[in-house]
């Protein structure tokens, strides 16, 4: 049965599958098509981004473990210092007891502790008042639309510049609202 029977293809008859004479992924003159170039570029950027994220994770995991161990030890040291301070202030009151009545010595130590608490609370309050938002990050994010392709101001009202410099970001469509 060397000849093909009617209704039988060359592949069915045991011959090798046919090889296309041209690559379907290439355009004219054997050059890659635009679609394939875009697909390859997108895949390359995606691979690069994933590789960078994996590298950052690998570097940060070890450093995070070190930072976690250091933080844990600092917390333990802080708790021990806090417990030790009780004995220091009790010692201070007993020391003052040598020159004044006992109740007055403990009252003075109590007043010192209240004064330290008030000063620390005030300094903390002042530091919190100085906290500001990430101004550079906000400015950088506002500039992103100006560097994206196709984001140049057009006649559309959604992209007209609001402050004379940057176009407004159009609102996203909410499918729930119709």
TrEMBL record:
Record keywords, A-Z: Membrane, Transmembrane, Transmembrane helix
Transmembrane among keywords: yes
Domain of life per record: Bacteria
Region spans: Disordered: 1-26, 146-178
Ranges of biased composition (kind: Basic and acidic residues): 162-178
Biased composition range(s): Polar residues: 1-12
Pfam family membership, one: Phage_holin_3_6
Stretches that traverse the bilayer: 73-92, 104-128
Signal peptide residues on this chain, from the entry's feature table: none
This protein's record includes keyword Transmembrane helix: yes
Protein name: Phage holin family protein
Organism of provenance: Gordonia aquimaris
